[in-house]
């Protein structure tokens, strides 16, 4: 007989934006934009998956589904017995757009296992365990960390462990994601990166990324603009997503702190105060917005939410 602390678990997992410009493979921000997943453990070997929303036409409905793979790996870590499952996924986070959909799927799977095991995710050490398992599956921590903890994170690998530091984000910071109607795989976006970079470019990024926590904590728009400049990855990736590079350049020319979101092709804009009307107005005048969908988002401050039923 199966023994679970809960037989039905819900998780709400945020989208994330990695890099934030200069913090390549290190910085990340959790966005108030969520996938919601329900899982019920079954005393059989069957897997029954329903997908609503993003990926409904393309994602596998068996053990190959990334959430199920992560759930299985974490179930082993958390000493759960074997089980079948019924899963319902309400997917809002678009895929292959630079909003961390695969990290969110992995964090969802690991969190579902934690919920089934009855682990208390309000405890910091349980969140740390979820982060370690999820980062190991993903292979790098920059999207996983904000999806687990919320807010702005800076993550790194220390020996075999992944580590992260959470930084305060001022309540006045708003985010806008510009979602294009085209995709770009992270794998493609990583292939074009050079193996070495000019020393001066490294220096630019070191100073900018060091400024970023102060800009986010103080909601300082001038500093935010400077702190989101990047020379290490965005210029090399621009030819793969020229429309994104053009939109980012345009937004920066209008004074808005803008970056490529993660590996792209979404564009992220950050501003201390609600600039939605202004962004609508300037983009309507300066950009062909027919291929873009602009979404105004809050910063998520809680990370993945797990509720057992
Ligand atoms: N830091 C990663 C990149 C984010 O820019 O390639 C995507 O996982």
UniProtKB/TrEMBL annotation:
Spans traversing the lipid bilayer: none
Keywords of the record: Amino-acid biosynthesis, ATP-binding, Cytoplasm, Kinase, Nucleotide-binding, Threonine biosynthesis, Transferase
Annotated localization: Cytoplasm
GO molecular function: ATP binding; homoserine kinase activity
Catalytic activity, as annotated: L-homoserine + ATP = O-phospho-L-homoserine + ADP + H(+)
Pathway it works in: Amino-acid biosynthesis; L-threonine biosynthesis; L-threonine from L-aspartate: step 4/5
Gene Ontology CC: cytoplasm
Annotated EC: 2.7.1.39
GO biological process: threonine biosynthetic process
SUPFAM superfamilies the record matches: GHMP Kinase, C-terminal domain (SSF55060), Ribosomal protein S5 domain 2-like (SSF54211)
Chain positions recorded as ATP binding sites: 94-104
GHMP kinase N-terminal domain sequence ranges: 66-151
Keyword Nucleotide-binding: yes
Residue ranges of every copy of the GHMP kinase C-terminal domain listed in the record: 222-274
Pfam families documented for this protein: GHMP_kinases_C (PF08544), GHMP_kinases_N (PF00288)
Record PANTHER family: HOMOSERINE KINASE, HOMOSERINE/4-DIPHOSPHOCYTIDYL-2-C-METHYL-D-ERYTHRITOL KINASE
Described purpose of this protein according to its UniProt entry: Catalyzes the ATP-dependent phosphorylation of L-homoserine to L-homoserine phosphate.
Homology family: Belongs to the GHMP kinase family. Homoserine kinase subfamily.
Protein name as catalogued: Homoserine kinase
Organism field: Alloscardovia omnicolens F0580
Gene name of the encoded protein: thrB
């Amino acid at each position: 007989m199966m023994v679970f602390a809960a037989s039905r678990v819900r998780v709400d997992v945020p989208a994330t934006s990695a890099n934030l410009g200069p913090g390549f493979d290190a910085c990340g921000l959790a966005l108030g934009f969520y996938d919601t997943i329900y899982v019920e453990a079954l005393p059989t070997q069957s897997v029954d998956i329903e997908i609503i929303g993003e990926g409904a036409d393309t994602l596998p409905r068996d053990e190959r589904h990334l959430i199920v793979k992560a759930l299985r790996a974490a179930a082993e870590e958390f000493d759960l017995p074997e089980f079948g499952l019924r899963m319902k996924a309400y997917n809002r986070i678009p895929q292959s757009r630079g909003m961390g959909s695969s990290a969110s799927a992995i964090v969802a799977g690991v969190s579902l296992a934690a919920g089934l095991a009855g682990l208390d995710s309000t405890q910091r050490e349980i969140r740390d365990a979820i982060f370690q398992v999820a980062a190991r599956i993903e292979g790098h921590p920059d999207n996983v960390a904000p999806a687990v903890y919320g807010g702005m994170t800076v993550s790194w690998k220390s020996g075999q462990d992944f580590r992260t530091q959470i930084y305060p984000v001022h309540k006045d910071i708003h985010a806008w994601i510009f979602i294009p109607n085209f995709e770009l795989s992270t794998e493609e976006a990583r292939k074009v990166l050079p193996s070495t970079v000019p020393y001066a470019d490294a220096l630019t990024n070191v100073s900018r990324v060091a400024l970023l926590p102060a800009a986010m904590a103080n909601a300082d728009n001038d500093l935010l603009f400077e702190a989101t400049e990047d020379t290490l990855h965005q210029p090399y990736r621009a030819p793969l997503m020229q429309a994104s590079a053009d939109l980012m350049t345009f937004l920066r020319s209008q004074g808005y702190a803008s970056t490529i979101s993660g590996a792209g092709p979404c564009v992220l804009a950050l501003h201390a105060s609600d600039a939605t009307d202004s962004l609508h107005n300037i983009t309507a005048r300066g950009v062909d917005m027919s291929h873009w969908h602009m979404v105004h988002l809050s910063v998520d401050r809680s990370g993945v939410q797990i509720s057992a039923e």
